[in-house]
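User: Quick sanity check before I run a bigger batch. Here is a single chain. Can you write out its predicted 3D structure?
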Amino acid sequence: MHTNLAYNAYTQNNIGVESPEKLIQMMYEGVLRFNMQAKRSVNEDNIERRTYWINRSSAVITELLNTLDYTQGEIAHYLSGLYSYQLRLLVEANIYNDSTKIDEVSQVMKGLLEAWKESTHVAHQN
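Assistant: Done. Predicted structure follows.
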């Protein structure tokens, strides 16, 4: 993945990130936090807050999409489709005030976060 752009942006803003791998983990975690707030806003019927948190989550997923490195094989193409679908679900969640679509995105992001943690853990052992 081309995490250098995102990594450079974070380090230039003096946010302590140990590595590009850690940044990806933080991005997945951010989507989960933002989705939790978006879901709370849906339940409170707070349109302004719902839109704010969904937009934050969408921005992170868009950044994940933009940092994919297609020279690394099929996984980048798979993730591109997956991220694009998650963005669509968030748009639908916002339009229809539907927390189930937020839950669906969160479930996918949790799975990706766990897979990412496992893959970076294995990579550091080798």
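The domain at 4-125 is CATH 1.20.120.340 (Four Helix Bundle (Hemerythrin (Met), subunit A)).

User: Great, the batch can go ahead then.
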